[in-house]
Amino acid sequence: MIRAVAIALALATGAAWAAADPMQAHAPSMQFVPPAPGTYQLQRIQRAPDAVLKDARDRQRRLGTLTRGRVTLLTFFYTYCVDEWGCPFAYRTMVGLRERLTERGHAERVRFVSISFDPTNDTPEVLRRYSGNLKAETGLAWEFLTARNMAELLPLLEDFGQDVSIEKDAKGQPTRTINHMLKLFLIDRNGIVREIYALDYLHPAMMVNDIETLLKEEDAAPIGALRR
């Protein structure tokens, strides 16, 4: 009930913007105090789907291994997105979250995953340039992934329920994503999606509390329960 009220208040005030706190710059302002970590539960929405992808070093990676064992924040993006409230906003939000989570001592228990919408442009080499030194800056892992082609990526987008518009060639084959809705997926260490954040609900303070709620849930679980 506490979380439901918080969400309703957040959505009701989503048109206002705050700039006093660097973590909240350009984010919807919160006219409420978020409930403390561990005082509420997050729903189990769906199991995170699996796929074979490629990382920035051109290595094959199974997504399933990157959505297990740690709390994971996952999003889809373009390296060349210029929409202020699209991928760049998500990127800035995740950079700030990573700093705050590291300060709180959670770097070894949390992971970020960013998957390109456009494997045609966003090759492993492009991802390597885009990510720069991000992975070396803190102990919190941040994986940047792409697919071999759009046809292989499309089932993953559908399984996540990621809203997209797809450009097709003369033969009707998918070539690239041309429009999408910004979403971030919070996944627990068992690979279950527990929250989905859209643009009007990207409140960093609330996201940190959600992550810490999942970490507290892990700590309270009986030995062996988290391996199921």
Summarize the structure.
With 228 residues, the chain is of the alpha+beta class.
Describe the protein's architecture and organization.
By secondary structure, this protein is α+β, with helices and mostly antiparallel strands. The chain has one domain: Glutaredoxin (3-Layer(aba) Sandwich), CATH 3.40.30. Helices cover 30% and strands 23% of the residues. The protein is built from six helices and ten strands. Strand 9 and strand 10 form a beta hairpin. The two termini are 28 Å apart.
**Structural class assignment:** alpha+beta
The total strand number stands at 10
Main beta-sheet strand count, sense and barrel state: 8 strands, mixed
The CATH class turns out to be Alpha Beta
**Which stretches are poorly predicted, pLDDT < 50 over at least 5 residues?**
4-25
One letter per element, helices H and strands E, the order comes to HEEEEHEHHEHEEEEH
For the termini, the CA-CA separation is: 28 Å
Summarize the topology.
Blueprint: H1 2-12, E1 46-47, E2 52-55, E3 60-62, E4 71-77, H2 87-103, E5 110-116, H3 124-131, H4 134-137, E6 141-146, H5 150-160, E7 164-168, E8 174-180, E9 183-187, E10 192-198, H6 204-220
Parallel strand pairs: 4-5, 5-6
Antiparallel strand pairs: 1-10, 2-3, 2-6, 4-9, 7-8, 9-10
Offer a few descriptive terms:
228 residues, alpha+beta, Glutaredoxin, eight-stranded mixed beta sheet, 6 helices, 10 strands, globular
